[in-house]
Amino acid sequence: MKETLLCPRLSKAMELLGKRWTTLIVYQLIDGAKRFNEIESSLPISGRLLSERLKELEKEGVVERTVFSEVPIRVEYNLTDKGLALKEVVGGIETWSKEWL
Amino acid sequence: MKETLLCPRLSKAMELLGKRWTTLIVYQLIDGAKRFNEIESSLPISGRLLSERLKELEKEGVVERTVFSEVPIRVEYNLTDKGLALKEVVGGIETWSKEWL
DNA sequence: TATATTTAGTTACATAAAGTAACCATATGT
DNA sequence: ACATATGGTTACTTTATGTAACTAAATATA
Q: Most exposed among A28, A52, B1, B98, judged by the fewest C-beta atoms under 10 Å?
C-alpha cells in the first residue's frame, strides 16, 4: 500500500465506517438496543457478515454485546458512547440523502 | 439480496458513500479542485480504482470533471453542489475520529 | 532519429472481501 | 422422534480490490 500524509485518525475512521454495512448497522442501533435477528431482518445483510461486522464494532468499542441466557438465547447489541457519537454522522448522511437522492 | 423496509434513499447513499475510498475522495476535494495525480498522491489508492470511483461520483453528480487540453493533458475534478453538501458528513467523521480514535 | 518525460488513464492478473446456502447447539413444545 | 427458534458458523461461489505493466499524445533531450 502507498504511503501518504493522510490523517491516521481519519484513515482509521474510514477503515471502519467505510466498510460495507458498518454505518447501516450503527444506524439501526441509534434508537436503542436490538437483537441479532432484528438487525438481520432490517438490513439486506447475511448472518455471516452481520456477525463479522458486529465483532469488529465490538472490538472497536462502538457496540456492546449483552447475552441473556434464556431459551432460546437472546443477544442484544447497543451503542456505546463512542457509537452514539456517530449519531451526527449518520444523521448527516440521512439528511443529505433526503435532500439530494 | 434480501428485501427490507430500509429507506431507499439512505440505502442508495450508503451504496455510494459506503464504497471504499469514496468518502476520502470527496474529502480531498472539499477545499477545491484537484487534479487526478494530486488525489492519487494524497490517498493510498491506485489509479485503477481512483478512475473507477471518480467515474461513479461523476455519474452521481457529486463530482465534476474538467479537461484542459494542454500538454501534457490536465484534468481537474471538483465537487458539485451535491458534493459540497457532503461537507457536513465528512466533517462529522473527521470530528468523531479526532474525539474517539 | 531514437529515446525520455509527463499526465491521465487502461489492461491483465492475483488476492481479498462479500454473497449464498446449508448446517450446528441449545432447550422447549407436539 | 420431530419441529421450532435463536445466534451464530462452515464451505463454496462470485465480486471487489490491489498490483504492476502498459498506452496515447505532445514535446524535450541526446
A: B1
Write down the pLDDT at residue B3: 63
Q: Among partner residues A3, A7, A93, which is closest to B17 by beta-carbon distance? A: A93
Name the residue ranges covered by the structural domains of chain B: 8-100
Phi/psi for B55 (5° steps) reads -65, -45
The alpha carbon of residue A71 and the mean position of all alpha carbons in its chain are separated, in whole angstroms, by: 26
Q: Would you call A31 an interface residue with chain B, using a CB distance cutoff of 8 Å?
A: no
Topology at the third CATH level for domain A8-100 = Arc Repressor Mutant, subunit A (1.10.10)
pTM value is 0.94
Show contacts of B77-84: CB within 8 Å, 24+ apart.
B77/B29, B77/B33, B77/B34, B77/B35, B77/B36, B77/B39, B78/B29, B78/B32, B78/B33, B78/B34, B79/B26, B79/B29, B79/B30, B82/A100, B83/B26, B83/B29, B83/B57, B84/B30
Q: Note down pLDDT in tens along chain A; length 101 residues.
A: 666 778 999 999 999 999 999 999 999 999 999 999 999 999 999 999 999 999 999 999 999 999 999 989 999 999 999 999 999 999 999 999 999 99
Q: Looking at the complex, does the CB of residue B44 fall below 8 Å from at least one CB of chain A?
A: yes
Comparing B2-6, B13-17, B30-34, the range with the smallest average pLDDT is B2-6
